[in-house]
Amino acid sequence: MRCDYCFYLEKHALYKGLPATHRMNDATMEKVIEDMFACSDTPTFIWHGGEPTLMGLDFFVKAVALQRYYAKGREYSNAIQTNGTLLDEEWARFLKNENFLVGVSLDGPEHVHNQYRKDLRGNGTFQQVFENAKMLSDKGVQVNVLATVNAYSVKYAEEIYKFFRKNRFTFMQFMPVVETDPRNPDAAAPYSVDAKDYGVFLNRLFNLWVKDFDFKRLRQKTSVRFFDALIQKYVGMVPDHCIFHKVCGDALVVEHNGDLFSCDYLVSEDTRVGNIHEMSIGEAFRSRDHLAFGRRKSDFGIECKECQWLDLCYGGCIKDRIRDPKDKGHNHFCESYKFFFERADKRLRKFAKLYRDHYQN
């Protein structure tokens, strides 16, 4: 895969040797698992990449065996985020048996997905990814589609939503793209989504999601992570989406050699927290560098401080403040969120009241 908007491919330059040699060994994997159970009663492991399935199925068979050993009866969960190209029925059996949540990168129908998600030869990858995602779903694997919202896909909110709905991909996550243009560091990359367009996309998507909501039984027919987390926020719960948190720092990234970073979007030489062979994951979470990183989110300007929606997004994701130089440190999607919140606020309050009334009674 050589997706135009890939933000992680360049990270191999942080390490010596060819990218193919950057593989986590068994000792590092075991240290990660041991440390996670030492610092959390119910740890969540998210296997990310590059492309994690390149490690091969045997790697994950070892991982779950170690998890069972260190869990000692405690609960834990696994999620894997994949481009889907290497999945087969053997993978499906394993993922189903081990109760993995599988996030498959699928941007939408063929013309949308193939716009930016191509292989090394420049060919679209839709057919292979779609068929494998369907295969997983048909085998009973928990599948969550991960769709980027880019300069092209932002025009097709209804078509994308209905495509996922038709194919029974009812758990959806939409991620807006903004990256610096590698050819012109003074501008955003051409595939980055425009803030106004993304606001319209969110509003259209929300209207579709609301139409699919079963108000009589208070049941969602589809799950869109952005909206689910917002309702959690309105109800007074802690949302499970970091974009709505006041500070960052709920997760740590462990690179193949054990290097620790505070965010997968911001892996760089100056954001390294330490190495798992020199400090535990618990120590990394409590470290001065990681805590300082988390507080960076509250370093927003006057415009945010005076915004009526501050308590919802807290200035948005840090990465979205720094990718487009024209934003000058302000969140690229500020206009998007304002546009959406102004139109969705009353209905979100209604949802919150429905949930509160239902569970209190």
Structure report:
- With 361 residues, the chain is an alpha/beta fold.
- It contains 13 helices and 11 strands.
- It has helices spanning 26-39, 57-71, 89-97, 110-116, 126-138, 157-166, 195-211, 225-235, 281-286, 288-295, 302-305, 310-313, 334-360; strands at residues 44-47, 77-82, 101-105, 142-149, 171-176, 180-181, 184-188, 223-224, 253-254, 259-261, 272-275.
- The strands form 3 sheets. It has a 6-stranded parallel beta sheet.
Features of this protein?
361 residues, alpha/beta, six-stranded parallel β-sheet, 11 strands, globular
Summarize the structure.
The protein is an alpha/beta fold and 361 residues long. The protein contains 13 helices and eleven strands.
Reconstruct the topology from this structure.
Blueprint: H1 26-39, E1 44-47, H2 57-71, E2 77-82, H3 89-97, E3 101-105, H4 110-116, H5 126-138, E4 142-149, H6 157-166, E5 171-176, E6 180-181, E7 184-188, H7 195-211, E8 223-224, H8 225-235, E9 253-254, E10 259-261, E11 272-275, H9 281-286, H10 288-295, H11 302-305, H12 310-313, H13 334-360
Parallel strand pairs: 1-2, 2-3, 3-4, 4-5, 5-8
Antiparallel strand pairs: 6-7, 9-10, 10-11
Helix pairs in contact: 1-2, 7-13, 8-13
Organism: Desulfonema magnum
Family: Belongs to the radical SAM superfamily. Anaerobic sulfatase-maturating enzyme family.
InterPro entries: 4Fe4S-binding_SPASM_dom (IPR023885), Aldolase_TIM (IPR013785), rSAM (IPR007197), rSAM_sf (IPR058240), Sulphatase_maturase_rSAM (IPR023867)
